[in-house]
């Protein structure tokens, strides 16, 4: 209920003002009593006051009045997905519409939920049909609420029936077309399309030329061409006409498939159902565009298009794509342009794929024209680096990356095991380069991997990057090194802009920027002078003080200096010389005239360093003195020192970060875009530990049919109840409700429960499988829910691991206003709380005794009947909003339930707790905690603390009381900027007004902690229809 209210008020456009200050807090009744509130989303509120129920998600999420049994007639046994009813695992189930709640209308109540529903036109037009209308189960005319729900059930059943009919029709049509094609087409017509078997590349070699579409021009019109490409995009125009956009790397061309001659209607039907990103082999004829404009605007090749005559699949897409390359090509400018249109509608615009989602699905992102452009330019940088240095008399070397000691002092290193002893990954080729100069190589360079174990999660740092390093002997002045480097950089810049202009323009679509500006005479500015320039411009350090000429600059200082120099000197490229001693490593040669500075320099691009270099100390005695001063153990670098003790000429060099220069050249904003498969401190996440399962035979990692076909072996899926006990949390227990449909992964048996609601497929809770299987399971489920059920997915109340997958792999937006409220039963503060202990002693004094029924050993039938009767008493005694008896299922899944019953000496049941066993990770759930009428004070405290003690003795480390509202709005992923501020302020106001975050005293004394749950939705936003679906999903009586 709480988040339902929150959603009601958070939704833009629903501006219904409350009729009174108390609106939304409680619905006043004739007797003056206010309705008690349930917890967030109707889950456990943790209230253990008299006559309260711990209402779990399983109950209000699945009210009997809104239940619909399944009309799931999917007899489809195709691999990869399955859909089954929870209780029968049967593809068919009869509809039952006779479950309705009798509740009463409170016409005088002003409800914010009702206001939003009126705004969204939910239930509009409902009216009571009087005595001639349908009757409820008590034989009385239905109330307006019951009539509305009755009508809604009928509509849901009708929609479900329509969807099933559509699915059947599509499948029937496909089989019919295949059968007709097989019968009617000639062998020549059949050969025009189809799937090429994977092992077809060792037969007859026809030497048929495969062309590059980038080379097609108007001179080729009328020419037959054969080429391989991906389907970038396709659009069916009619039953006889399909548009394609084919892609080869950075080039795209329009293709037209029209029914004619040997191109049959069956070929068109087959082609229009191909997936984007499929690799196809096309044979066709080039023609002039048939459009009114006279050119193709939706492809990079404008003046020709291909009339497709043959089309064969070489590599099919067999897994659902989180996004297509066509979607990834959308730019921020295009999104802004669409949003600015007067006829723009919410949720109906293209979305720019977030960086995190791109990087989490790197292979797809690398297919984009932008990525191709970036890495073509990266290749060009290396090419021109080699070309220039080769022309200057350098030779290329390849140094080892496994070393016995740290390469540089002060930098973190990755330690690895090397045959039982320690070794390190090279931080740079510095030592090897200098040893080559000592070996009289004269001039050397290297392009190779560099490793830095620095926990820097910034836009400009990587833990593994590619270094472009050089070292050379010096004749007279260390600026000889600087001049070589300067010529090399200018050769790179000139070569890139001359040879890769088209790539640069492609990259500019996603990353707008101006071309680099550099001068013929590169400015060489002493470090101290640069600091003075900054200070004179009014710049201050982070503490508000002028910068020190003897201390190194920070990143923000460097960027500001770049702005100052661009303004004064008109260049993006410059050199800072004579760095202070304390800003350089131990091997930097000091200036002979000023021992506080060194013969070292940095080269900058757009205000950030791209190279660090200078003259090295080549005298062994001076080197040892420096090491001693900096407390570096010479024995750790014995081999290095020995090279100088044997005599080494004066020399210097520098190191360039390839990804850094590429990022700055193209203004990529994040160095990860410049790395093929970027490595940073968050890369290579630790794999989830596979814990001992409660039911090993119901594993999804090793399903019972492992190694064989499940259907052929006649084996059933793992029971959903056992999957909950293996992998589930409190939210997953709601999947046992009749209205929930269960999708199953054909290979693993992994499960996802969902409820079809107003055109949406709403899921609560994580997938039931091992976390390492989340991505594959979610991919299969989302493909099923969209393609086969034609529903829009919403995913509510998921944990952090599932949220991470939805956000990073599927670009979903996420936020949290809800948390599971968990306690450690083994360290229960309530055991030492004087007030709670006083209440428990009172209950004991009244003779209250607790009877335990261990896991899998439910109470006998006579005890069950007594408890059912007391539940009836509890329901009758409640005031305000009613929860129907069918919402409380104490005897559901008894295999995983533990019961604790409090009785007085005369046998009267006064309190009842049902504990639900969850996964080993999540422990237990206080499923129901009922304090019955006329129970002695302290009874509920007594039985709850006792239940916690019992599960603690069994080794449980955590117990959840269900969900509750968080104290603040917490953005997850892909929700940022103004949206966060608005939602955060709105949620704070709602939480304060509705007292959503008021914990009960009892729960506080149990030491409950919040474990955030997330609301997740696709990138087009949480529009009015989605909110309407959620409101109906969590609907209760008003």
Automatic annotation (TrEMBL):
Annotated GO CC locations: aminoacyl-tRNA synthetase multienzyme complex; cytosol
Catalytic reactions of this protein: tRNA(Asp) + L-aspartate + ATP = L-aspartyl-tRNA(Asp) + AMP + diphosphate
Biased composition (Basic and acidic residues): 152-169
Transmembrane segments: none
Major place of residence: cytoplasm
Domain of life: Eukaryota
Subcellular location: Cytoplasm
Keyword annotations: Aminoacyl-tRNA synthetase, ATP-binding, Cytoplasm, Ligase, Nucleotide-binding, Protein biosynthesis
Top EC group: ligase
Disordered, as annotated region: 1-169
A single BP term in Gene Ontology: aspartyl-tRNA aminoacylation
GO molecular function, one term: ATP binding
CDD domains xrefs: AspRS_cyto_N (cd04320), AsxRS_core (cd00776)
Occurrences of domain Aminoacyl-transfer RNA synthetases class-II family profile (ranges): 375-678
UniProt-listed Enzyme Commission number(s): 6.1.1.12
Family statement drawn from the similarity comment of this UniProt entry: Belongs to the class-II aminoacyl-tRNA synthetase family. Type 2 subfamily.
Name of the protein in its database record: aspartate--tRNA ligase
Species in which this protein is naturally found: Lentithecium fluviatile CBS 122367
The organism's taxonomic lineage, starting at the top: Eukaryota, Fungi, Dikarya, Ascomycota, Pezizomycotina
């Amino acid at each position: 209920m709480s988040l339902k209210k929150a959603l009601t008020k958070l939704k833009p456009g629903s501006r219904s003002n409350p009729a009174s200050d108390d609106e939304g807090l409680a619905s006043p009744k004739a007797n003056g009593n206010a309705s008690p509130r349930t917890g967030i989303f109707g889950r456990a509120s943790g209230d253990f006051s008299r006559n309260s129920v711990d209402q779990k998600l399983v109950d209000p999420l699945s009210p009997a009045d809104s239940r619909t049994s399944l009309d799931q007639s999917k007899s489809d046994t195709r691999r990869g997905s399955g859909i089954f009813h929870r209780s029968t695992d049967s593809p068919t189930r009869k509809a039952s519409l006779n479950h309705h709640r009798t509740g009463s209308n409170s016409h005088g109540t002003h409800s914010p939920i009702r206001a939003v529903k009126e705004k969204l036109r939910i239930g509009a037009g409902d009216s009571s049909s009087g005595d001639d209308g349908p009757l409820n189960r008590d034989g009385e005319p239905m109330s307006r609420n019951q009539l509305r729900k009755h009508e809604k059930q009928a509509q849901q059943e009708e929609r479900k029936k329509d969807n099933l009919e559509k699915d059947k029709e599509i499948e029937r049509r496909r089989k019919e077309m295949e059968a007709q094609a097989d019968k009617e087409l000639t062998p020549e017509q059949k050969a025009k399309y189809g799937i090429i078997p994977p092992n077809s590349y060792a037969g007859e070699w026809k030497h048929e030329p495969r062309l590059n579409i980038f080379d097609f021009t108007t001179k080729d019109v009328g020419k037959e061409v054969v080429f391989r490409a991906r389907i970038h995009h396709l659009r069916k125009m009619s039953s006889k006409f399909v548009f394609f956009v084919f892609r080869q790397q950075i080039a795209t061309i329009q293709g037209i498939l029209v029914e004619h001659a040997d191109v049959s209607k069956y070929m068109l039907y087959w082609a229009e159902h191909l997936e984007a990103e499929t690799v196809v082999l096309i044979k066709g004829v080039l023609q002039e565009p048939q459009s009114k404009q006279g050119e193709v605007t939706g492809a990079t090749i404008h003046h020709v298009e291909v009339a497709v005559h043959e089309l064969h699949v070489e590599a099919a897409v067999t897994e659902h794509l989180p996004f297509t390359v066509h979607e990834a090509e959308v730019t921020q400018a295009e999104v802004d342009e669409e949003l600015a249109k007067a006829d723009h509608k919410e949720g109906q615009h293209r979305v720019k794929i977030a960086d995190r989602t791109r990087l989490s699905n790197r292979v797809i992102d690398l297919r984009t024209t932008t990525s191709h452009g970036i890495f073509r330019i990266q290749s060009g940088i290396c090419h021109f680096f080699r070309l220039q240095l080769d022309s200057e008399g350098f030779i290329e070397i390849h140094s080892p990356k496994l070393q016995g000691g740290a390469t540089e002092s002060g930098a973190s290193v990755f330690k690895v095991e090397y045959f039982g002893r320690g070794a390190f990954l090279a931080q740079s080729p510095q030592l090897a380069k200098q040893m080559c100069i000592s070996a009289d190589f004269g001039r050397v360079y290297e392009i190779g991997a560099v490793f830095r174990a620095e926990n820097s999660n910034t836009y400009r740092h990587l833990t593994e990057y590619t270094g472009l390093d050089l070292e050379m002997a010096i004749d007279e002045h260390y600026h000889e090194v600087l001049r070589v480097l300067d010529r090399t950089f200018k050769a790179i810049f000139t070569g890139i802009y001359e040879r890769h202009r088209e790539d640069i323009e492609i990259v500019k679509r996603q990353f707008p920027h101006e071309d680099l500006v550099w001068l013929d005479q590169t400015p060489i500015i002493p470090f101290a002078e640069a600091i003075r320039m900054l200070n004179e411009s009014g710049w201050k350090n982070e503490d508000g003080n002028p910068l020190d000429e003897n201390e190194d600059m920070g990143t923000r200082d460097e960027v500001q200096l770049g702005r100052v120099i661009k303004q004064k000197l008109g260049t993006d490229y410059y050199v800072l010389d004579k760095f202070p001693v304390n800003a350089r490593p131990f091997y930097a040669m000091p200036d002979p005239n000023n021992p506080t500075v060194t013969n070292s320099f940095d080269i900058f691009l757009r205000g950030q360093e791209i190279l660090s270099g200078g003259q090295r100390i080549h005298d062994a005695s001076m080197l040892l003195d420096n090491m001693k001063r900096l407390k570096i153990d010479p024995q750790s670098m014995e081999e290095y020192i020995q090279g100088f003790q044997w005599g080494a000429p004066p020399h210097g060099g520098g190191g360039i970060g390839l990804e850094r220069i590429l990022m700055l050249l193209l203004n990529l904003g994040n160095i990860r875009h410049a790395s093929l498969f970027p490595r940073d401190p968050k890369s290579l996440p630790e794999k989830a530990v596979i814990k001992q399962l409660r039911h090993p035979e119901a594993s999804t990692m090793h399903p019972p049919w492992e190694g064989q076909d499940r259907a052929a072996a006649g084996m059933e899926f793992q029971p959903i109840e056992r999957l909950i006990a293996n992998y589930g949390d409190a939210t997953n227990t709601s999947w046992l409700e009749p209205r929930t449909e269960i999708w199953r992964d054909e290979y693993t048996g992994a499960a996802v429960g969902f409820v079809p609601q107003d055109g949406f497929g709403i899921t609560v809770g994580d997938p039931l499988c091992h976390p390492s299987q989340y991505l594959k399971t979610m991919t299969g489920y989302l493909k099923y829910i969209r393609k086969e059920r034609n529903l829009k997915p919403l995913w509510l109340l998921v944990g952090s691991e599932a949220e991470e997958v939805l956000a990073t792999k599927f670009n979903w937006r996420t936020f949290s206003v809800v948390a599971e409220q968990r306690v450690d039963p083994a360290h229960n503060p309530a055991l030492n709380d004087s007030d709670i202990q006083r209440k428990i002693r009172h209950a004991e004094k009244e003779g209250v005794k607790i009877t335990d029924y261990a896991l899998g050993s439910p109470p006998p039938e006579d005890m069950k009947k007594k408890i059912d009767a007391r539940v009836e008493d509890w329901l009758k005694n409640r005031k305000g909003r009613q929860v129907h008896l069918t919402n409380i299922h104490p005897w559901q899944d008894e295999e995983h339930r533990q019961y604790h019953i409090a009785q007085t000496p005369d046998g009267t049941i006064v309190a009842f707790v049902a504990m639900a066993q969850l996964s080993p990770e999540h422990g237990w759930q206080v499923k129901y905690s009922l304090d019955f009428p006329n129970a002695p004070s302290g009874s509920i405290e007594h039985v709850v603390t006792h239940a916690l003690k019992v599960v603690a003795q069994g080794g449980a480390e955590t117990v959840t009381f269900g969900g509750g509202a968080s104290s603040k709005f917490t953005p997850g992923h892909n929700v940022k900027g103004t949206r966060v501020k608005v939602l955060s302020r709105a949620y704070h106001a709602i939480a304060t007004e509705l007292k959503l975050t008021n914990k009960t005293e009892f729960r506080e004394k149990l030491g409950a902690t919040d474990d955030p749950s997330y609301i997740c939705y696709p990138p087009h936003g949480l529009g009015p229809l989605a909110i309407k679906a959620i409101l109906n999903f969590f609907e209760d009586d008003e």
